[in-house]
Specification:
alpha+beta; ATP Synthase, domain 1; Single alpha-helices involved in coiled-coils or other helix-helix interfaces; eight-stranded mixed β-sheet
């Protein structure tokens, strides 16, 4: 018999971010987004920078996450992420400022500037802003 719900657990090195019973989860996998419903086949997937969405009934909630792994079982998903923030925890003004600072540094001719790290940092801020806005309506 297939389970009717999923237990979603999200953990970072600093804290347990979330433990909820949910109906559906959408994860940012390294090769694209992955939708998970109760009864999903077991799998282990690497995660990318992106938006994690989960649904409880008709209510959708969002988190900004970066890197890590997800273990999917028929009735449980465990996400071990480098970073994870609930939408309501995100300071949008701070994220915008940080994104602008990174973009300004990307335009400077500093030979020691790491463009790859800056690109990743910009992507994280863009996701944070998007998640916070989406959650706000």
């Amino acid at each position: 018999m297939l389970p009717e719900k999923l237990t979603l657990e999200i953990v970072t090195p600093e804290r347990r971010v979330l433990t909820e019973t949910v109906d559906e989860v959408v994860l940012p996998g390294r090769l694209g987004y992955l939708g998970v419903l109760p009864g999903h086949a077991p799998l282990l997937t690497a995660l990318s920078i992106g938006e994690l969405e989960y649904r409880q009934g008709s209510v959708k909630r969002y988190l900004a996450i970066a890197w890590g792994f997800a273990e999917v079982l028929p009735s449980r998903i465990i996400v071990l992420a480098e970073t994870a923030e609930r939408a309501e925890e995100i300071d949008v003004d701070r994220a915008r400022r940080k994104k602008a600072e990174i973009e300004a540094r990307m335009k400077s001719p500093d030979p020691y500037f790491d463009l790859d790290k800056a690109t990743i940092a910009t992507e994280k801020e863009v996701i944070r802003i998007h998640v916070a806005r989406k959650s706000a309506g």
